[in-house]
Write a structure and sequence with these properties.
Blueprint (H helix, E strand, L loop, with lengths): L6 H8 L15 H9 L6 E5 L37 H6 L2 H10 L8 H11 L3 E6 L5 H5 L6 E3 L2 E8 L5 E3 H9 L15 E5 L8 H10 L5 E5 L21 E5 L10 H6 L13 E5 L2 H12 L2 H24 L2 E5 L3 H5 L12 E6 L2
Parallel strand pairs: 1-2, 1-7, 2-3, 7-8, 8-9
Antiparallel strand pairs: 4-5, 4-6, 10-11
Helix pairs in contact: 5-11
This protein binds 2'-O-acetyl adenosine-5-diphosphoribose and zinc ion.
Length: 361
């Protein structure tokens, strides 16, 4: 990826060449962020998220112990967990990936309150862009304008033959994947494996990612990061690209991969200063993304609106689900993640985690 990833850019930032930083928040906590938003000091919010925003919908994340996907891959006999998404490995042995794809094939999942919070930011004219690492398409399900969305790690919506690059639709793939057949190119002399356009290790990120990063990050006046371990590059280092004074809020169950003094931390992890005495803009809020969004909206006076938006959104999805049920789509509970991670059932909305698992059976 081109642009300010260059070493010179990183070194200049690290050496603090330029005017001294200014603290824009009254206090370095959630109240400071709330006052900042209430005072109308931000109009270009960027949200950056990972799998942790979808665990309460019943979709496991990758790295959480016990419930994370990488702790549950024994049955695929992979040489190492990330091989599941490794291009080189996939070309030699696509079966494990397609078995998993069958399990996690996007159907009608219910977006979480956190997804609807992001949509609300857009409705209020405050969202510059939403960057997601997720391939579950819950942002689209929540009704977020696709123009505002950057799917950094691609999606299942399209697929390409690895050999001749012919494009295939999700619908063509769906029948094969759900039938347990490895999808192959229909051009007889080609017969290449068709791979969904989700980004594997070794793949290039979508063009829109590079374009939007260049366009957006210099304008960002509040960065909100949620539900990601910030360990996969180049996504993780985006947090370092906002202007020096821009406040950064990180909502996550744990403060992973963001502090320390290693080389990779200095140059690629965004240099968060949550606990440093010279912190002037970084706020960490520990807890679930849903709780974080509800707490934030409560303090902003938007909680009732969020509760209503979630209710309406879920009602619409239930309606679509019952339509599909009448067409004989089978629904099944997704086990695991929600037990430890979800809070949907607690206070704010119902806790359904039913998702279509396969169709036509
Ligand atoms: P990870 O599984 O690495 O991190 C998810 C983070 O969310 C962890 O820090 C969890 O503690 C936290 N978390 C889980 N549930 C939460 C909840 N309800 N509320 C708040 N926090 C919660 O997932 P990602 O950071 O998304 O890439 O992983 C990045 C990339 O690694 C993925 O896009 C995928 C993977 O390899 C590819 O497949 C290319
Ligand atoms: Zn082909």
């Amino acid at each position: 990826m081109k642009g300010p990833d260059s070493l010179l850019y990183e070194v200049k930032k690290k050496l603090d060449i330029g005017p001294p930083p200014v603290q824009l928040l009254d206090t370095l906590d959630l109240d400071g962020i709330v006052n900042f938003i209430k005072a109308g000091k931000c109009k270009n919010i960027i949200t950056m998220v990972g799998a942790g925003i979808s665990t309460s919908a019943g979709i496991p994340d990758f790295r959480s112990p016990v419930t994370g996907l990488y702790d549950n891959l024994e049955k695929y006999h992979l040489p190492y967990p990330e091989a599941m998404f490794d291009l080189e490995y996939f070309q030699k042995n696509p079966e494990p990936f397609f078995s998993l794809a069958k399990e996690i094939w996007p159907g009608i999942f219910k977006p979480t309150p956190c997804h609807y919070f992001i949509k609300m930011l857009h409705n209020k004219g405050l969202l510059l862009r939403h960057y997601t690492q997720n391939i579950d398409t819950l942002e689209i399900q929540s009704g977020l304008d696709p123009e505002k969305l950057v799917e950094a790690h691609g999606s299942f919506r399209t697929a390409h033959c690895l050999v001749c690059k012919k494009e295939y639709s999700k619908e063509v793939m769906e029948d094969k994947v759900l039938a347990g057949v490895i999808p192959r190119c229909e051009i007889p002399e080609c017969n290449g494996i068709i791979k969904p356009d989700i980004v594997f290790f070794g793949d290039t990120l979508p063009k829109k990612f590079a374009e939007c990063v260049e366009e957006d990050f210099g304008k960002c006046d509040l960065l909100i990061i949620m539900g990601t371990s910030l360990v996969v590059q180049p996504f993780a280092s985006l947090s370092h690209r906002v202007p020096t004074n821009t406040p950064r809020l990180y909502i996550n169950l744990e403060k992973t991969g963001t502090e320390g003094v290693s080389f990779s931390f200095i140059f690629f992890k965004g240099g968060f200063k949550f606990n440093d005495k010279d912190n002037y803009r970084d706020v960490f809020w520990q807890g679930t993304c849903d709780e974080g969004c509800f707490t934030l909206t409560e303090k902003l006076g938007w909680k009732e609106e969020l509760t209503r938006v979630v209710k309406e959104g879920h009602a619409k999805i239930y309606k679509e689900m019952s339509l599909l049920k009448s067409k004989n789509v089978r629904f099944q509970k997704v086990k695991g993640a929600e037990n430890r991670r979800g809070n949907l059932g607690k206070t704010h909305t119902d806790s359904g985690t039913t998702t279509p698992k396969s169709k036509g059976k």
